[in-house]
Amino acid sequence: MMMILKPLSIQSLPRYISIIPFLDFSSNPRNSTFLTFSRFFCSENPQLDNDVETIFRIISSSTSCKDLKQSLKSTKVFLSNELIDRVLRRVRFSHGNPVQALEFFHYTGRRRGFYHTSFSLDTMLYVLGRSRMFGKLFDVLLEVRRKDQTIITPRTLMVALARIAKVCSVRQTVESFKMFKKLVTEFDTTCFNALLRTLCQEKSMADARNVYHSLKHKFQPNLQTFNILLSGWKSPEEAEGFFKEMTDMGVKPDVVSYNCLIDVYCKGREIDKAHKIVDRMQDEDISPDVITYTSIIGGLGLIGQPDKARDILKEMREYGCYPDVAAYNAAIRNFCIAKRLGEAYGLMDEMVNKGLSPNSTTYNLLFRVYFWSNDLRSSWNLYGRMMDAGCLPNTQSCMFLIRLFRRQEKVDMALQLWNDMVEKGFGSYTLVSDVLFDLLCDMGKLVEAEKCFLQMIEKGQKPSNVSFRRIKVLMELANKHEALQNLSEKMTIFGRPVQVHETK
């Protein structure tokens, strides 16, 4: 059954429209989140790049708050908003030292007449939340609010709640949400929606709906409220029931609402129902968008029709709806599931020809196939293609690779991946290093293990205690007591000193 598409209207919006409510397009330099965000992808200032690297190294190598302050004072780098934004972003994505990053945030923020951007605040909160430093997180919020009440936005609330919800209960998350009443200028439906979105992402739809019913009398639910709650249903019956509840309340569905319903049908392999919703949208003069067709493409793959899904890419383009990277990834995933990698690579080439750049998700679809088929050569070639294309691997990419290197005992390849991570700052050092140190220790590569261990510490990343104990045993057997003492001293920057000698 081929879909009959109508030309898209000018109201059709791209996939990334959902971020717009959290971006501030005003001219206020303290809240210019959009301008700050865009600068990360179009840096044309080599000096700024060097300054970011200088400050990041100071944060990574400082052993105390006093040492950090002295190093910052001695440098001649001008600590501008743009530089601070980029340094904190670097800390976040390289899993840098949260304690020193916080001290840097305080040091720069307490200067007279200086105001952090919303981006800096949100990034700092993410780093603290990831490290479960929730007390410090709220201390930061209170401190910045005293200086600038407008800096705490709904996105700030989402960043904080997401980290809390990841490790705390629903009740604790809701209690933390209520604390924001004293922090934000308007504690309204937008904030309520941020809570619901967080619960959908970090907890469950049942939790989100329960909280919705318990708090909805304090807020005025709107279309976004229902769209948030519609996204993520796994049961078509439950999604249908909530969709009816929304319309019964007089809230008119939009393209996002219908896309949520289509998505749950596609994931449930009920493609015919998904087609009927598309027809209903068109009858109501709501044009399907790229997300609509991405769901259909994914659903066709689940029922074993990858070729038909690929035809959707061509058909939607004919009617003015152009596939994006996610749409191509859905089609590529279908061919990967079917083990038809030639067609998958063909779609990657087509993406590039259409001016789209495959992302880490694209490559991970292929890395997964190669990992389970134990195909080292193809994985290594794909990694080379990825790096040549300028697409940095994410943590999942690195784990597929390092585990395959570990399985086949390929030390040189593992070290090449590690050196690329250190040089370019991608992936999780903690997760990758555990597998790397296992390989190096099993192969008796003690010198290499020591070097990687020190590189990790220099990056402000704490090696796991398991990895340290493995290296410790080998160093004791090799009578490298001085080197072991050096590693132990380096580890003290992360807290309680590591005991070099076992107690008897």
UniProtKB/TrEMBL annotation:
InterPro entries listed in its UniProt record? Mito_RNA_Proc_CCM1, PPR_rpt, TPR-like_helical_dom_sf
GO MF annotations, alphabetized:
mRNA binding
Q: Which GO terms describe its biological process?
A: mitochondrion organization; RNA processing
KW Repeat (keyword) present: yes
Superkingdom of the organism of origin = Eukaryota
Per its UniProt record, what Gene3D superfamilies does this chain match?
Tetratricopeptide repeat domain
For whether the record's keyword set contains Repeat, the answer is yes
Please report the residue spans annotated as repeat (PPR): 254-288, 289-323, 324-358, 359-393, 394-428
Keywords carried by this UniProt record: Repeat
A GO CC annotation given for this chain: mitochondrion
Q: Which family does the record assign? A: Belongs to the PPR family. P subfamily.
Q: What is this protein called?
A: Pentatricopeptide repeat
Q: Which organism is it from?
A: Quillaja saponaria
